Amino acid sequence: MKKSDFGEDFLWGVTIAAIQNEGASFTKGKGLTIWDTFSKRIGKIKNGDTPSHACDFYHRYKEDLLLAKQLGFKVFRFSIAWSRILPEGQGRINKSGINFYHQVIDECLTLGLTPYITLYHWDLPHDLEKEGGWCSHFLLKWFSRFVTVCAENYGSKVKNWIILNEPMGFTTLGYMLGIHAPGKMGLNNYFPAIHNAALAQAEGGRIIRELVSNANIGTTFSCSEVMPFSDKEQDIKAAARMDLMLNRLFIEPLLGKGLPHVEDFPMLEKMLVHNKTWKYTERLQFDFDYIGIQNYFALTVKHNPLIPYLQASEVKAKTRKVPYTDMGWEINAESCYRMIKRFWDYGNIRKLLVTEGGAFFKDKLINGTVDDAQRIQYFQEYLEAVLKAKREGVNVGGYFAWTLTDNFEWSEGYQATFGLIHVDFSTQQRTIKNSGYWWRQFLKS
Ligand code: NOJ
Q1: Pocket of ligand 1 (CB under 6 A)
Q2: Domain segments of the chain: what residues?
Q3: Per-residue pLDDT tens for 386-434?
Q4: Which atom of ligand 1 is nearest to the CA of 412?
Q5: Exposed (0-12), middle (13-18) or buried (19+): which is 393, by Cβ within 10 Å?
Q6: Which residues belong to the active site?
Q7: Other C-beta atoms within 10 Å of 7: how many?
Q8: Per CATH, the architecture of 3-442 is what?
Q9: Which of 22, 240, 354, 410 gets the most CB atoms within 10 Å of its CB?
């Protein structure tokens, strides 16, 4: 497999996110985010880590962008920290925050890296959370203002936009299970949060379309093929419920297919009653130029009556003798191929981009080298899967690696390293891993 097999126009990118990389959490007027407050709660983040320093992209963006270029990438995807430009989430604008992203964008353009801006990568301003966050009926108003400020400031330089990063991730983990910021739990939080996120992804698209000329607009979804543990009917139905929640809930209303449905899932009826406007699908729809998909693992699921509502639980990869990463996530490139095909089979998606892909393996820095052969193999297998889908006619137009440097991996803290570049978090020294060198070679091929 060579880069040239993917064709001339295929986009090769690398992705980071504000709260995971920037650090400088309290610098030059930046407001608090839900991750600053959540990470202070005992036991929420491994080793008590907080995102306050991260890998200091805020001060080292020039070095990091140069590294991205040296590895051969042409696209740089990053997110804007809402509270850096609007410290309270609404109201006054923080000029120095606006300037920071101008500097990042200008540096990208100077280096020949095409910027892709993610508007929301999970770092809601804390002040908005105090007023209900994603559960509030003001959310759409706050989000619209944030999107407008970004479009007005950066729209003349940046044409490629991503509205939300993985809405399923931040709503389920943050507003249902309580394991991500802001740590809320239960259906009373979850239902309004998913509804507001579904509205925001479409509304954000409309705002960018109106304010940015020639914009190329997308939004991203996590996806995982869900397989039943056995051919028992109960397991098959459990897998279908999980599949609906993980893969269908946000994309289908967006594509005009309304709220997805499976049999024997009473929670869905409750959802409809709660969010009456799920029925009025127009505002949930938007004709995106591309859809970003992010596939990290495949899931095997069995019926479990002890799990509220879903009545389904994962059968972990390590108990099934299949390969898995150090996150415990099943490695299954063939299943990634099937998910790409499945998204494409919806029929009304213009283009797919793999806006993230990557893996955590425990790295060892020995004599200036990180020999992360497993990560290289992972990328090779997953890229083969993308190529296979492309050869079969799927319009998949790019692959963005997750991630440039080791960074703050949410509730896993700093020990879960996904980077192509190793970071010593005490000195902030960067060392290109063998996977980074592999990319550099591959991108020349
Ligand atoms: C997807 C998320 O967008 C990203 O922030 C995260 O670090 C990776 N998954 C790995 O878990």
Answers
A1: 17, 20, 165-166, 294, 296, 356, 402, 409, 418
A2: 3-442
A3: 999 999 999 999 999 999 999 999 999 999 999 999 999 999 999 999 9
A4: 11
A5: exposed
A6: 166, 356
A7: 10
A8: Alpha-Beta Barrel (3.20)
A9: 22
